[in-house]
Amino acid sequence: MRVRFAPSPTGALHIGGARTALYNWLLAQQAPENRLVLRIEDTDRERSTPENVEQILDALGWLDLNWDEGPIFQSDRADRHREVLAQLLENGHAYRSTATAEDVKAYKQQHGSDRGFRGLPEDTGAVRLRVPDTGATVVHDVIRGDTAFEHVHLDDPVIARADGSVLYNFAVAVDDLDAGITDVVRGEDHLSNSPKQLLVFEALGVEPPRYAHLPLLHGPDGKKLSKRHGAASVQELRDAGYLPEALRNYIALLGWGYDDETTLLSTEQMIEGFRLERVSRNPAVFDEQKLRWMNGRYLRELPLDELTRRLEQFTGRTGIEGAVAIAQDKMQTLADFEPLCGFIFDGPADDPAAFAKVIGKDGGAENLAAAREALAATEPFDQEHVETALRGVVEERGVKPRQVFQPLRVALAGSTVSPGIFETVALLGRDETLRRVDEALAKTTA
To answer: CB–CB of 282/215 below 8 Å?
Structure first.
């Protein structure tokens, strides 16, 4: 099997493109002789910039989706495209035509709006592919079944401009032929292109590849996935703190399932179990909340040293292993670390509202002072003895745990968000804990 991933470098790699790349990659991993070809369809010279190409390669690299051949740049194959174009002109499968959009419109007014345009050969003009007047081109799709396109309704498609530069559907067919592609796995939005490409294969007298068109991606509201649904590109999700292995797992399940129950899949399970025949033809829903949940599961299963390494790379901080250890169970993304633990390194946040609500009323200052007294006498100053001391304050004062723990949390973090209070106090140590508590208590008497 030879498959290809053929993105147009007109921007960042979006979720739909990442899923297409992943599915092709999974197929390529299933046998030693299988190959994945990376082709950059860069014929749109204005939008296909080197920076956009780099974005695609960067996203594939981050997802750890490698390829066997390429990248092949479609723009480098112009001579080969012109060669095949000349072949079709010579054998009568294509012709030149100066027909404009207005001419096509007039033709349909004369012959019927559902009648495909047919032109007459001319000496100059764009090149059109001849479509038979009878019969149909049938797209045999592994996922969707057969879709027939009646020839009578198809226009003779333009396959090259008057200057000889070829158009997308012609170039794609020639490139797939030359690369020996056996299976074309791509998004459903390309289904309408398939008859034009199949007609090129037919004109060349060669067998076409097998097609599989993946279902569209929708947001949780049932509408086509777009920016309004949140992060739309691989880079945005990376910057939001998602792990590549979690994202691979999640997008693999957007239309396919290993079985009816398994959600968390190793790469080996995905490779072993992936089948195009099991891909649904119904739209798949990309829900970032579900991705967050899955990412949290992956994150919590990372060894502490590995999670620390990734967080150091993500945040630019060093010496954070202690904070990582007490925050791991509370995080769903790498980006959660800073709001959860930044105060450990930078000092308490400045949140007057939290201070006033938690420490400034309902006995908060008194409970905080009692906690300070107990912590000053705690020996040794570790998590176990800190917890014993603070729970003793709760019992002695006859209050609820949160009435002691929350004022202490606000004194240390400046907000009501932190890892577990006992772990936090032990990590900060006696001197730093008491210093921050004293600063908070000073504010209550200022």
So the answer is: yes
Q: How many domains does the chain have?
A: 3
Last residue of a domain, one of 316, 346, 376: 346
Query: Which tokens go with 186?
Result: 């791509």
Q: Is residue 75 part of a domain?
A: no
Nearest-CA neighbor of 117 among 125, 107, 109?
A: 107
In this prediction the pTM is 0.93
Q: Under DSSP, is residue 426 helix (H, G, I), strand (E, B) or coil?
A: helix
**Contact status, residue 141 vs residue 212, Cβ threshold 8 Å:** yes
Active-site residues, by number, are 227
pLDDT tens sequence across 273-325: 999 999 999 999 999 999 999 999 999 999 999 999 999 999 999 999 999 99
| φ/ψ bin of 17: left (φ > 0), alpha (ψ from -120 to 50), beta (otherwise) | alpha
Domain span including residue 406:
352-445
Q: Establish if 209 belongs to a structural domain.
A: no
Asked if residue 436 and residue 367 are part of one domain, the reply reads yes
Q: What is the DSSP string of 8-42?
A: --SSS-BHHHHHHHHHHHHHHTTSTT-EEEEEE--
- Rounded Cα gap, residues 328 and 373, in angstroms: 30
Q: Which amino acid is at 210?
A: R
